[in-house]
Automatic annotation (TrEMBL):
Coiled coil regions, renumbered to chain: none
SUPFAM superfamilies named in the record: Multidrug resistance efflux transporter EmrE
Pfam families referenced in this protein's UniProt entry, alphabetically: Multi_Drug_Res
Entry's transmembrane regions: 12-31, 38-57, 69-88, 95-113
The protein, known as: QacE family quaternary ammonium compound efflux SMR transporter
Subcellular location: Cell membrane
Keyword line: Cell membrane, Membrane, Transmembrane, Transmembrane helix, Transport
Main location: membrane
Family the entry assigns: Belongs to the drug/metabolite transporter (DMT) superfamily. Small multidrug resistance (SMR) (TC 2.A.7.1) family.
Organism this protein belongs to: Psychrobacter glaciei
Signal sequence interval, chain numbering: none
Membrane topology of the entry: Multi-pass membrane protein
Length: 119
């Protein structure tokens, strides 16, 4: 795949995906930083947050703010919850699982049916 010939929308969604991944990994290092008492996890967290926000700004050149932020926040919540379950052995009760399912549903409705979403 030739990156130079990709549409701006495809590139923007790629930036957004990487921004989300950096934010989730950064949040994982936030947990590992133990309230900023461990230097290396704190520095990694900060770097990943900076990369995440930079890529979000690049996304906003093409994708409207509300759509980009809804995707970034919604998918970030879902992925961070999964990280908590798998890596930190945190549990989700039924209400939390239903809430996360509603977030996923909202993101899907927005992407499938909204005319605001850039495709």
């Amino acid at each position: 795949m030739d990156v130079l010939n990709m549409s701006p929308t495809t590139i923007a969604y790629g930036y957004l995906a990487i921004a989300i991944i950096c934010e989730v990994i950064g949040t994982t290092f936030l947990m590992k930083s133990e309230q900023f008492t461990r230097l290396v996890p704190t520095l990694i967290m900060g770097l990943l947050y900076v990369i995440s926000f930079y890529l979000l700004t690049q996304t906003l050149k093409t994708i409207p703010l509300g759509i980009a932020y809804a995707l970034w926040g919604g998918l970030g919540i879902v992925l961070t919850s999964l990280v908590g379950l798998v890596f930190f052995k945190q549990s989700l009760d039924t209400a939390a699982a239903v809430g996360i399912a509603m977030i996923v549903g909202g993101v899907m409705v927005m992407n499938l049916f909204s005319n605001s979403v850039v495709h």
